[in-house]
Amino acid sequence: MTDVVVVESPAKAKTINKYLGDGYTVLASFGHVRDLPPKDGSVRPDEDFKMDWASDERGRKQVAAIAKALKGARTLYLATDPDREGEAISWHVRAMLEQQNALKGVEVRRVTFNEITRSAIRTAMAQPRDLDHPLIDAYLARRALDYLVGFTLSPVLWRKLPGSRSAGRVQSVALRLVCEREAEIEVFRSREYWTVTAGLTTPSGAPFTARLTHLDGKKLDQFDLATEEQATAAKATVEAASLAVRSVERRKTRRNPSAPFITSTLQQEASRKLGMSAQVTMRTAQQLYEGIDLGGETTGLITYMRTDGVTMAAEAVTAIRGHIGKEFGPAYLPDRPRVYTSKAKNAQEAHEAIRPTDVGLTPASVGRHLSDDQRKLYELIWKRTVACQMQSAELDQVAVDIGDQAGKTILRANGSIISFDGFLKLYSEGRDESDKAADDEDRMLPPMAERDPLKIREAGTEQHFTQPPPRYTEASLVRKMEEIGIGRPSTYASILTVLRDRSYVRLESRRFIPEDRGRLVTAFLVSFFEQYVDTQFTAALEEQLDDISGGRVEWREVMRAFWEAFSAAVSQTKDLTITDVIDALDRDLGPHFFPVPVDGSDPRHCTACGTGRLGLKLGKFGAFIGCSNYPECQYTRRLAVEGGEADGAEDLKDGPRVLGSHPETGEEITLRRGPWGLYVQQGEPDPEDKKAKPKRASLPRGMTGETITLDQAVGLLSLPRLVGLHPETGEPIQASLGRFGPYVKMGAVYGSLDKDDDILTVGLNRAVDVLAKKLASIRTLGAHPKDSEPVVVRKGRFGPYVQHGQVVATLPRGSDMGEVTLDEALTLLAEKGKSLKPRGGAKKTTTRKTTAKKAAAEGDETPKKPRAKAAAKKAPASEAKPKAKKAAPKKKAASE
User: Fold this and answer.
1) Confidence of residue 624 (pLDDT cuts 50, 70, 90)
2) Are 279 and 496 spatial neighbours (Cβ–Cβ below 8 Å)?
């Protein structure tokens, strides 16, 4: 008998089964097998937060397969992911198996591993444990909190603020951060200031540049040179001065490497260096963690990617140090291993940092087995991990003060030289575009000594304006959420995705801009539920959840305290009138919707009627701007045009934009706007052949007219593309774009890709994973004895059914599609089989009517006969004859 091991994904199951051998059966749960039903009452505070759990068809099928495999087994190993969600999935699987009485005589043990390698799996299997109930309690509390906030607050939004979508415990706080940053930008007033620089030459003739820091013996503040006249006068003073070196200050500094990646820093660095969204980063990291086929054996390349711990296993550090000494030499290896501690608020340090499972698997050696995204992300992780154990970089920094003899005019030049590159030889951390280095590390200064006379080559002035705080990027928003302690590593990507899917924010130039809908929701929540979108309150709640997971507090105590205050706050909004809501929103968002014009006129003055005042109004379909003189004045305007010109294709107003020529045919590739959005076109229509149309392809979600390249356009026009062959069946898998978005296809099986999947680069592992979930609802029973065509059982809209070609038969009520046999299916098809209606049936009816009209116009009697028969069926013969007579004059008139 074999023991049973349950993991989360089929790709992981296949790899682990190879490592464990024939003594084990490894099955996948496909993530959560059950969840709270999305309906009111699934969490009942009045019954001490009792929860109702429900499983879908896929979850029931997977648990049924596990139960079947357990017959005769001694031990069930629950080996889901090593985090709170993984612990919860194991708990759900065990609970469902207990309900089916499938665990009699079976010992249930929990195993976790941080990496999917042969040694890690075998070590974990030798050290099983029981389920961690404090972790499960923390999951229950978090799930109950998110459910109660969403299902209690969202209906309030729908009633009081039409057009809003939903509210969430952490999602709404993240949205508030984005909206408040936008409000800061709107009220920001730029100030002008000037700087003066001088191009100087040393006695040896070496040039360099210095900036004016003191004028007339006074240190210059940022706005001391506020006008061009002041800057020009300061420039003249510099040009007239006799300058020499006053002092040269040299000092050695060391720059230490950054800690290895955790979830948030990986998302930030992938965004800065690779331009990857948080969701794409985590999906790609999941693929690297679950395993890549390296010449016949599937190997996990990185450790678990949802973590806030920066520590690494001792054996991994030893291996990395050995690699550094061998590849870079002893000068790059510190005397002792580096030890890192987390600076993030509420970090649990429960798992290792994200690192390669084997430092010997260098990016160069495995790159050919990886997709483009996988290769880039693995190289980033590998280099960061190795660099974190390398020697510090050493820099010689120089600061030179230059001035006249009296010391009234002083300039400063800064520069540095890397005397030893250390970890910078391999890796340097990326920076946000808004992060301006305070020093001039990349500038090199020529040798100088005190009292060296200097010549002025030229002097110049430069105008500057103060800049508003930058909008959040995905990287900076994740960093901000981590700093204040809201959300967790596993939630960052989903939070950002929800904000975009709800149309609360949009991404432009990789920065978040709140939509008006998002600003309205934030203003409403801040006005009437401020505590629950407060960063400190949300962070404190996260600390309580951590206390639950540590066994320091009982989860229902936390829930009772939260619910008492929250339900009271919700009940206070029952008496809110639309006027109350409008007044609150108008107060908060008035400056945004009604900015003061340059001429200082009243921005709320209604130009339509001349006397009314414009203000915020709420209608059935959301908010809009309207006049106070309604209904006499019916002037209205929308807050914002959906989509607007945010797709980066403003220049298409004057016609198509040429992207380039097709590399094979030489035809012109153009970007165009149609009634259903942007699309690319290859070539032009043939004027002689009106039926022949040029090849066209719509732009998928996430691709804009501003960012699309010629290569991407050619890729879209060449769809469908071959992703690869299925590793088990050998069937080709294709990727393409359909009416409802990107999908992958294998034979007659289609699987929808996520909105953020890149149709042009999606890899084989991802495609197999998507198809596996789809195949969970389709089961092939075997070949039909008559024609060898497959007989399958499918999950249908109204229940499971069997199908052979175009003939289908519904399974009896209560039947399990996982238990039906080929013989049973053949019997059902013979007794109850019905042919599927051919597609386009409605069109045939329309064609028949058209043909009948045409025939009547030509005086043909043929169409009249079926009408008479049809009428006779529905009415007595005595009534049918008058109808037939009435048709004759029409026919005659038509023929005349």
Assistant:
1) confident
2) yes
Catalytic residue chosen out of the listed positions 304, 378, 472, 492: 304
Q: Which secondary structure element, helix H or strand E, spans residue 780, and what is its range?
A: strand 778-783
Q: Tell me: the pLDDT tens digits for 173-186?
A: 999 999 999 989 88
Residue carrying structure tokens 């948030």: 264
Query: Domain containing 854: what range?
Result: 843-895
Dihedral (C-alpha) 842, 843, 845, 851: value to the nearest 10 degrees?
A: 170
Angstrom CA distances, 161 to 151, 519, 573, 635, stand at 15, 12, 12, 21
Chain-centre distance of CA 596, in angstroms? 37
Q: What are phi and psi of 822, to 5 degrees?
A: -65, -40
Is 120 in the same domain as 22? Answer: yes
Provide the terminal-to-terminal Cα distance of the chain, rounded to the nearest Å.
88
Task: Say if residues 260 and 312 touch (Cβ distance below 8 Å).
Answer: yes
878 phi and psi angles, rounded to 5 deg: -65, -30
Closest-CA residue to 292 (of 300, 280, 282): 300
Residue 585, phi then psi, degrees to nearest 5: -70, -40
With respect to residue 648, please indicate whether it lies within any of the assigned structural domains. Answer: no
- In angstroms, rounded to a whole number, what is the distance separating the alpha carbons of residues 79 and 110? 6
Whole-angstrom distance, CA of residue 624 vs CA of residue 642: 13
- Whether the per-residue pLDDT at 846 is higher than 50: the answer is no
**What is the CA angle 374-375-378, rounded to 5?**
80
Q: What CATH number does the domain containing 228 carry?
A: 2.70.20.10
Alpha carbon distance 34, 137 (integer Å): 16
Do 220 and 147 lie in a common domain? no
Strands (E), 244-384: 244-255, 292-294, 297-299
Beta bridge partners of 78: 6, 110
Q: Whole-prediction pTM value?
A: 0.64
At which of 805, 836, 867 does a domain end? 836
Say if CB 37 and CB 12 are below 8 A apart: no
User: How many domains does the chain divide into?
Assistant: 7
Amino acid at the residue 164: S
Cβ–Cβ < 8 Å for 124, 114:
no
With 50 as the cut, is the pLDDT of residue 117 above it? yes
Would you call 679 a catalytic residue per the annotation?
A: no
Cα 432 to Cα 176, 391, 815: the distances in Å are 21, 25, 57
Burial call 100-133: b when 16+ CB within 10 Å, e when fewer: eebbeebebbbbbbbbbbeebbeebbeebeeebe
For the record, the structure tokens of 275 come out as: 């331009």
| Residue 610 DSSP SS3 | coil
- 837: confidence class by pLDDT, cuts 50, 70, 90: low
* Cα angle for residues 698, 703, 709 (degrees, 5° grid): 90
SS3 call for 841: helix
pLDDT digit string, tens, across residues 132-170: 999 999 999 999 998 888 888 888 877 777 667 778 888
**Distance from CA of residue 397 to its chain's centroid?**
41
CA dihedral 553, 556, 562, 564 (to 10 degrees): -130
Q: Which of 531, 551, 578 is the last residue of a domain?
A: 578
Closest CA to 98 of 34, 39, 17, 38: 34
Distance CA 556, CA 574 (A): 27
Residues 352 and 235 in one domain: no
Task: Give Cα 622 distance to the centre of its chain.
Answer: 27
Do 272 and 386 fall into the same domain?
yes
Residue 281 burial (C-beta neighbours within 10 Å; 0-12, 13-18, 19+) = buried
| CA pair distance 310, 261, nearest whole angstrom | 7
415 three-class SS: strand
Query: Is the same domain home to 461 and 484?
Result: no
Whether cis (ω within 30° of 0) applies to the bond prior to 631 is: yes
Radius of gyration for the chain, computed over Cα atoms and rounded to the nearest angstrom: 35
pLDDT of residue 797: 66
Note whether residue 867 is domain-resident. Answer: yes
